[in-house]
Amino acid sequence: MSAPLVDIRNVSHRFGQLAVLKDISLRIEPGSYTILLGPSGSGKTTLLSILGGFVTPSEGKVFIRGADCTSTPPARRPTTTVFQDYALFPHMSVGGNVGFGLRMQGVDGATRAARAREALALVGLGSAFDKKPHQLSGGQRQRVALARALVIEPAVLLLDEPLGALDLKLRRQMQDELKAIQKRVGTAFIHVTHDQEEAMALADHCVVMNDGRIEDEGPPERVYHRPATRFSATFMGESTILAGKVTDARDRTITVTTPVGPVLVPGTLPAGSAIALAIRPEHLILGGAAGTAGLGTAKVSDVVFQGSFKRVLAISAEDPSLQFIAKLQASATVQPGDTVAVSCDTDQIIVLAD
Q1: Given this model, what pLDDT does residue 1 score?
Q2: Cys bridge to 22: 56, 212, 245, 265, which one at CB 3.0-4.6 A?
Q3: pLDDT tens-place string over residues 162-190
């Protein structure tokens, strides 16, 4: 097994008496696009600041390329950071901004200009060298900040919610461009966001954080389809959660009692285990279907048209505290007030330890 590019070992951090990171260990491979995903206060930005050298952890070590960088200042570690607010110098040209890090390294003017032009061409702004930042759009300024970070050829590029200030259309465009640039340059990107769709669009390594801990990590497809924890199932996309208890286990199938009745799902947990069943919206079937697990009936409370699909909320008749979340085809004719049968393919039900 090859050595990781970044090796975070048992890192904890406190601001005064407040513990914001709690025994974090994480390995990041060369050439990967890692997303640190979590709600506000989960510790993801603090972890990024520790990686960038802006914060020294209270406990633990950070190794980059095998070297202990725990106490190394930002300018002396092989990382650069792209901030949400771009942090461009307004009095400098775009070329001057991009070449600033090289200037601090003592690179001569001609070489600096040539490399800055190359970096701007990489992000699609080859003609902007002589412009000032105020002459560019928000998306263009973001690309300048990215070029400035990449021009010094860091081992790791750190991105602190870099798309948060952009509108939806531009944010999606920049997602495509970021992924394409990362593949071209081969630099490891570590990107902080609270946007689940952004995480799934960009990451090949997704790290879900909550309350200073790592709840789940792995390829985004695995984290979405088979989350490790209840928090991961509800934060990385939506889920309907059924509390349950295993009452029978045989032939690699368990019977789970739930508020909507017994449900048989694949599994090997022993009888008596308290679990939760999570069902993604696209796997819920409203109207019932042969060969699926019945989940009772429900009354549709809301239908929201979202372009390519309809998001449907329905209240369980068996347990009024339970709300089903379904994603149906845009052409579905369901309306608020309809009473419908609810079911799901048992192979799509996620079993979680409660």
Answers
A1: 54
A2: 212
A3: 877 677 777 888 888 888 889 888 899 99
Alpha helices by DSSP H, listed for 17-99, are 44-52, 94-98
Model pTM score: 0.88
Contacts of 224 (CB under 8 A, 6+ apart): 200, 236, 237, 280
CA distances, 121 to each of 151, 185, 237, 353 (Å): 11, 13, 36, 50
Choose among 153, 160, 150, 128: nearest CA to 141: 128
DSSP states along 240-298: EEEEEEEEEEETTEEEEEETTEEEEEE--PPTT-EEEEEE-GGGEEES--TTSEEEEEE
Cα–Cα distance list, 227 to 136, 280, 334 (Å): 41, 11, 30
DSSP 8-class letter at 129:
T
Q: What does the alpha-carbon distance between residue 57 and residue 270 come to, in Å, rounded to a whole number?
A: 41
Interior CA angle at 352 toward 39 and 298, to 5°?
85
Q: List the domains of the chain with CATH numbers.
A: 6-234 (3.40.50.300), 239-353 (2.40.50.140)
DSSP code of residue 10: E
**Tens digits of residue pLDDT in 237-275:** 899 999 999 999 888 899 999 999 999 998 888 999 999
SS3 125: coil
Q: Residue 239 carries which side chain, given as an amino acid letter?
A: S
Q: What is the largest CA-CA distance in the chain?
A: 75
CB-CB contact of 263 with 278 (8 Å): no
352 CB contacts (<8 Å, ≥6 apart)?
Answer: 227, 229, 230, 233, 275, 276, 277, 278
CB 150 within 8 A of CB 188: no
Measured distance CA(324)–CA(339) in Å, rounded: 12
Sign of the four-CA dihedral 330, 336, 340, 342 = positive
Q: How far apart are CA 206 and CA 219, in angstroms?
A: 6
Q: Which residues pair with 262 in a beta bridge?
A: 257
Question: How far is it, in rounded angstroms, from Cα 331 to Cα 307?
Answer: 10
SS3 312: strand
